[in-house]
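hiii, so i know i said id send this last week but things got crazy w the move. better late than never?? heres the sequnce for the chain we talked about at the cafe, plus the structure i predicted for it. fair warning i was half asleep when i ran it
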Amino acid sequence: MNDLTECPHCGSDYGYHVICTMKGKGACQYNFDHSEGDNTELHDSLMYFEQKTMYCSECLKKIGMKN
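okay and structure toks below
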C-alpha cells in the first residue's frame, strides 16, 4: 500500500493512521507553581505495538494493510 497518495474513499491527502497499543509508565512533571513542566520525555519509557490495518485520518475508513 506504499503507492497510495490519497484515500480511495474520500480523496483526502491528509494521511493515514494505524492503531497502536502502548504499555508502560511515565512521570508527569509539574512546576512548583502547579503549571505543567517539561514532559518531552514522558513517552520515552513506553513500548508501542502497532497494528497493521491502515485507516484514513479524514474519513476513518479502512484503506489497506501496512507492510
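btw The chain has one domain: 16-65. thought thatd interest u
miss u guys!!
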